[in-house]
């Protein structure tokens, strides 16, 4: 076998099998979908054929309206990630560095973290209105927790001798954070941001589908309310592909080449 | 050596003080350090004193558990809550002090920084501009024999090379006193000997006042002008051994009878202390076993 030496990697033939399996599951899902659509078992408009959905995607991608709403949603998510990420990193470092703060507040973060944030949506609407403000707030609420938890964990895993080296060279508090904590925590922070991005997308879109006047979630729920199923499926498909793309992109950042942090 | 390109701004070279009496680069007086543990108060260091003359290489040797590392942390200013006094050129210090440069036992290079960025770290901290600190870092990298590796990351170097980076980094801060805690502990014997040679040669070239904490007898005799032997817990001064061997301490010196006598002499003292420590560990382990 060709698997000699490199532990963890798999042989090229096995790699090819993996690709085949991946393609197969997609083909099977699409085939079942098409079969159901053609059989007429379900109401035809609920499960439109692939060709109809494909045409709807084409139409969708040709309208400027789609791009306007896409950019609104993207801006909401980016804003949420920026605010929630900064807050999460700051809180995570504080909790990871200080045992008293950790004992006082860490349980809050662990218990609030998995709580469905959508229950705060009515409050966010009252505070920030029906527009993008309340969506950003929902995104922030969603991504703050995983980022704070990752940052706190990363902070605790810093090699203590590096902190002692910093102290022996008499670094200031800010130098300690910028020149030792943050570079040492790069991997856990990027990982936290990746988890945070996932839930920020969920939080923001969920909020948009509940009550909004712009954004992709709004377009989806609008398509649903006028029963334009092909358009709705088109939106869902595009969203799906975009999410995968963004996640893959951030995953790249988390695993730099063999240089740097290992 | 390119030492003329980088002026060393230390004042230690002159051994005379304004008052006229002999100056000590570093003086440690009557240090007592106690720790509160679950089993009561443990006295780690009990009334330990030492003084290092300018340009001297002094080693403190003792068995495991004699409070060597405690002493290291107190002198380096990383540990407080002790009785006694630490003075640098007559000035009492508390906390970290720029005159004292520490080299740690553990792997302590920054893995995200290249060799040159690691060595320039203390200069970056004090706000030296990039060109100047890179120049100075190169000087110290060359001094520890790592020229050509400036742009490598620590993960691409061997353990001995990484420890040389740490030493160069501390030297780059130009401390009046170089304070090292078992810097060769993690290395294999041959690397340890070679690196010891290198450090001694640098120490001689710079007339660098050095205090080495170690448990390795050969290393202490090879490098030092004087060796202080510590007792097992609580750590007290047991004996001072002056090492009257010529420099450079090449293989001829190291294989000489005199060298062997120093090693034997120190081992004779240390043996009692080390076996005390071993017995205490054994009885503690036995007690813990009977408790279960």
Please explain how this structure is put together.
The complex is a heterodimer of chains A (about 260) and B (about 290). Chain A is mainly alpha-helical. Chain A has a single domain, classed as MetI-like (MetI-like fold). Helix content of chain A is about 80%, strand content about 0%. In chain A, helix 3 packs antiparallel against helix 4, helix 3 packs parallel to helix 6 and helix 9 runs antiparallel to helix 11. The longest helix of chain A is centred in the first third of the chain and has 34 residues. The radius of gyration of chain A is 23 Å and the shape is globular. In chain A, about 35% of the residues are buried. Chain B has about 290 residues and is α/β, with parallel strands linked by helices. In chain B, about 40% of the residues lie in helices and about 20% in strands. The longest helix of chain B has about 35 residues. The N and C termini of chain B lie far apart (about 60 Å). The N terminus of chain B is likely disordered. At the A-B interface, helix 7 and helix 8 of A face strand 6 and helix 3 of B.
Second-tier CATH architecture of the largest domain in chain B: 3-Layer(aba) Sandwich
Per DSSP, the total helix count of chain A is 11
Within CATH, the superfamily of the largest domain in chain B carries the name P-loop containing nucleotide triphosphate hydrolases
Whole-number tally of structural domains of chain A:
1
Q: Which protein chains make the most extensive interface, counting residues with beta carbons within 8 Å of the other chain's beta carbons? A: A-B, 21 and 23 residues
- What is Rg of chain B? 20 Å
Shape of chain B: globular
State the fourth-level CATH superfamily of chain A: MetI-like
The first-to-last residue Cα distance of chain B is 62 Å
| Overall mean pLDDT of chain B | 86
Helix/strand/pairing category of chain B: alpha/beta
Write down how many β-strands of chain A occur, each being a DSSP E stretch of 2 or more residues: 0
CATH-defined architecture of chain A: Orthogonal Bundle
Mean pLDDT of chain A: 87
Biggest sheet character of chain A: none
For the record, the CATH class of chain A is: Mainly Alpha
Strand arrangement in the largest pleated sheet of chain B:
6-7-8-3-9-10
CATH topology of chain A: MetI-like fold
Separation of the first and last Cα atoms of chain A: 29 Å
């Amino acid at each position: 076998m060709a698997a000699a030496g490199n532990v963890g990697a798999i042989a090229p033939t096995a790699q090819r099998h993996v690709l085949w399996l991946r393609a197969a599951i997609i083909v099977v899902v699409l085939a079942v979908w098409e079969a159901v659509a053609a059989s007429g078992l379900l109401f035809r408009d609920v499960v439109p054929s692939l060709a109809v959905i494909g045409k709807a995607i084409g139409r969708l991608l040709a309208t400027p309206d789609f791009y306007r709403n896409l950019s609104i949603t993207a801006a909401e998510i980016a804003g949420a990630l920026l605010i929630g990420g900064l807050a999460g990193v700051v809180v995570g470092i504080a909790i990871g560095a200080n045992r008293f703060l950790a004992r006082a507040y860490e349980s809050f973060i662990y218990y609030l973290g998995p709580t469905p944030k959508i229950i705060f949506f009515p409050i966010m609407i009252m505070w920030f209105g029906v527009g993008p403000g309340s969506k950003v707030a929902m995104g922030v609420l969603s991504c703050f927790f995983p980022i704070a938890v990752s940052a706190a964990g990363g902070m605790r895993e810093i090699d203590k001798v590096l902190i002692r080296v910093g102290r022996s060279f008499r670094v200031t508090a800010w130098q300690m954070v910028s020149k030792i904590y943050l570079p040492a925590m790069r991997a856990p922070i990027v990982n936290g941001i990746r988890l945070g991005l996932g839930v920020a997308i969920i939080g923001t879109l969920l909020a948009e589908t509940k009550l909004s006047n712009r954004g992709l979630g709004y377009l989806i729920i609008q398509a649903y309310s006028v029963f334009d199923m092909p358009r709705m499926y088109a939106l869902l498909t595009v969203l799906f592909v975009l999410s995968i793309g963004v996640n893959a992109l951030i995953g790249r950042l988390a695993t730099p080449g063999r240089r740097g942090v290992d | 050596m390119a030492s003329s390109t980088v002026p060393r701004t230390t004042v230690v070279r002159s051994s005379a003080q304004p008052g006229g009496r002999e100056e000590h680069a570093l003086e440690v007086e009557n240090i007592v350090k106690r720790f509160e543990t679950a089993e009561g108060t443990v006295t780690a260091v009990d009334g330990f004193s030492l003084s290092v003359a300018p340009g001297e290489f002094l080693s403190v040797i003792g068995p495991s558990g004699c409070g060597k590392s405690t002493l290291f942390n107190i002198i380096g200013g990383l540990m407080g809550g002790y009785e006694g006094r630490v003075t640098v050129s007559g000035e009492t210090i508390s906390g970290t002090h720029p005159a004292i440069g520490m080299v740690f036992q553990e792997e302590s290079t920054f893995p995200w920084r290249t060799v040159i960025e690691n060595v320039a770290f203390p200069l970056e901290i004090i706000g030296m501009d990039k060109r100047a600190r890179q120049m100075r870092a190169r000087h110290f990298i060359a001094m520890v024999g790592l020229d050509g590796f400036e742009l490598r990351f620590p993960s691409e170097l061997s353990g001995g090379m990484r420890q040389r980076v740490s030493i160069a980094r501390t030297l780059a801060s130009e401390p009046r006193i170089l304070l090292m805690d078992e810097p060769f502990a993690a290395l294999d014997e041959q690397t340890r000997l070679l690196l010891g040679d290198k450090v001694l040669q640098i120490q001689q070239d710079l007339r660098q006042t050095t205090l080495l904490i170690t448990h390795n007898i050969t290393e202490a005799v090879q490098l030092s002008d004087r060796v202080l032997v510590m007792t097992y817990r609580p750590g007290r001064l047991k004996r001072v051994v002056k090492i009257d061997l010529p420099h450079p301490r090449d293989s001829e010196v190291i294989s000489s009878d005199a060298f062997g006598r120093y090693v034997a002499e120190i081992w004779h003292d240390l043996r009692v202390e080390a076996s005390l420590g071993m017995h205490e560990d054994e009885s503690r382990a036995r007690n813990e076993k009977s408790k279960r």
